[in-house]
Amino acid sequence: MDFPLKKGAEIELEIESLAFGAKGLARLNGLVVFVERALPGQRLRVLITKKKRDYAEARPLEVLRESPDYVPPRCSHFADCGGCLVQNLRYEVQLAAKQRQVEEVLVHLGGFAQPPVAAVLGSPQQFFYRNKMEFSFARQRWLTREEVDSAQNISERNFALGLHARNCFDKTLDIAACFLLSELSNHILAAVRAFTKGHPLPPYTTRDHTGFWRFLVIREGKRTQEVMVNIVTADAPEGKKAVAELSAALQQQFPAISTIVHNINRSKAQIAFGEEEIVLHGTGYLREQIGACTFHISANSFFQTNTLGAEQLYSVARDFAALTGTETVYDLYCGAGTIAIFISKLAKQVVGFEIVPEAIRDAAVNCGLNQTDNCRFVQGDLKDELARVPLLVQRWGRPDVVIVDPPRAGMHPRVLQKMLELAPQRIVYVSCNPATFARDVRFLCGAEYQLEKVQPVDMFPHTSHCEMVGLLTRK
Ligand SMILES: C[S@@+](CC[C@H](N)C(=O)[O-])C[C@H]1O[C@@H](n2cnc3c(N)ncnc32)[C@H](O)[C@@H]1O
Q1: Residue located nearest, by CA, to atom 27 of ligand 1
Q2: Average pLDDT in the 18-36 region?
Q3: What is the pLDDT of residue 141?
């Protein structure tokens, strides 16, 4: 019998599992239904919101039976915030779901019949696990259901400093407290809000690209306790003075802040990145430790956001690289040289490649900080830097091992092609996106490599993100 599943229909469903994007997956007459805010094991009455040929989407109307793995969410913003989507699901169940999702992606996009995926390594901390938070300023504040219903605080709707609302990237939820970075960061957030709300310079808006305040980025060394505050703004005649005043107020209120920087982003791209940086207090950088290594991190440099999780991630990468001290290693997408330096004592030499100049400068400083003298760094776009492999090999030697850690988009096709020319014995692929990992690994395994093992590492509890390390060896 064909079920009359139409948009607007109300039906009862049992949630089987957690799908990508932290949606509950249910089946009805062979049709998959993705239900937002649903947990495995729940029985729900839902409203069908979208019907496609081979799947439907729904939202819950009523919980008829709660999941055995439900846990009360800790955060008061849970219902509205786009950050921790499954904070109400037992952590062990989150990990099992991530392992299954990685396996499924490798089957469907990677073409592997039985992908060798190990159980996910859990994050050592499940709250306050991040060393960096990026809060956005907005003129359009997301109103919670209670506010809409009660019409309270509506007059305050033209300012927000916080995180994106669930499923609504152009609205910002004003965040009072967040359990991802630290208690101190919540106090800094409140102080920055008090200073900027009602300030003559308004928040920036992407609607017409006007306004001033763009992002508040707080970084905190979990191992060093150093704190960096980075205020990212547009350009404005009175702007530098306003941020200097904010900086002075923060220094007075929070002696624990080690450094404050002001980054000016003149572009329309809504990213917490500046073309001009002004150091207002302290050194302008943060130090953090991963394992025995200390790293110097500039405001614009990438650094793994879960310090204790990164120790696990890098340890897996180091073990997969299986270095004996004689190898030349290329570290592609090396950021501030963190993996390169972490493994350097086990290799003959490591050559890192990275596009961001500040990160390359940090990498050089990091070598000094860690008494590392066998790492070299090359700044540039990898698709250009790898264009002439014979020249690279002449200069640095042929790599025995290549470690890659690309951004979410994965490796550029030209870079993938060049991997075959570099022909290392082992490729250690660190990835933050299972889909592009599966795509790239499929390409490499269609050529001269085989996938030996995949170790997922959870760096982002309560979210649908999953980091992983894959080991590929030459056939
Ligand atoms: C996921 S991060 C990894 C960084 C580093 N491995 C770590 O663990 O901190 C990816 C890095 O790739 C760099 N990147 C992005 N596109 C690039 C490109 N086309 N060429 C070289 N590096 C690039 C980014 O700037 C970023 O530092």
Answers
A1: 335
A2: 92
A3: 78
Q: What whole-number distance in Å separates Cα of residue 24 and Cα of residue 93?
A: 13
Which of 47-51, 65-69, 168-172, 469-473 has the weakest average pLDDT? 168-172
Same domain, residue pair 366 and 416: yes
Last-in-domain residue among 65, 82, 108? 65
DSSP labels, 5-48: --TT-EEEEE--EEEGGGEEEEEETTEEEEETT--TT-EEEEEE
User: Dihedral angle at the C-alpha atoms of 41, 43, 47, 49, nearest 10 degrees?
Assistant: 10
For residue 72, give both structure tokens. Answer: 């009360």
Q: Which domain holds residue 221?
A: 132-289
Q: Which of 197, 131, 186 is nearest to 163 (CA)?
A: 186
Most confident by average pLDDT, 17-21, 246-250, 297-301: 246-250
For the stretch 256-278, pLDDT in tens is: 999 999 999 999 998 999 999 99
pLDDT in tens, 293-334: 999 999 988 899 999 999 999 999 999 999 999 999 999 999
* Model confidence pLDDT, tens digit, residues 378-433: 999 999 999 999 999 999 999 999 999 999 999 999 999 999 999 999 999 999 99
What are the CA-CA distances from residue 264 to residues 1, 47, 153, 278, 386 (Å)? Answer: 61, 45, 32, 8, 32
Separation CA 464–CA 434 (nearest Å): 11
Cβ atoms of 450 and 439 closer than 8 Å:
no
| Token digits of residue 341 | 């330096």
**Is the domain of 173 the same as that of 284?**
yes
Pocket test of ligand 1: the residue of 219, 289, 295, 302 to mutate, having most ligand atoms within 8 Å of its CB, is 302
pTM summary value: 0.92
Q: Using a 6 Å CB cutoff, which residues line ligand 1? A: 302-304, 333-335, 338-339, 353-356, 359, 381-382, 405-407, 432
Largest CA distance in the chain: 71
Among residues 410, 467, 403, 466, the alpha carbon closest in space to that of 442 is found at 410
Tell me how far apart the alpha carbons of residues 98 and 424 are, in angstroms, rounded to a whole number.
Answer: 30
Judge if 314 and 451 occupy the same domain.
yes
Q: Is residue 1 part of a domain?
A: no
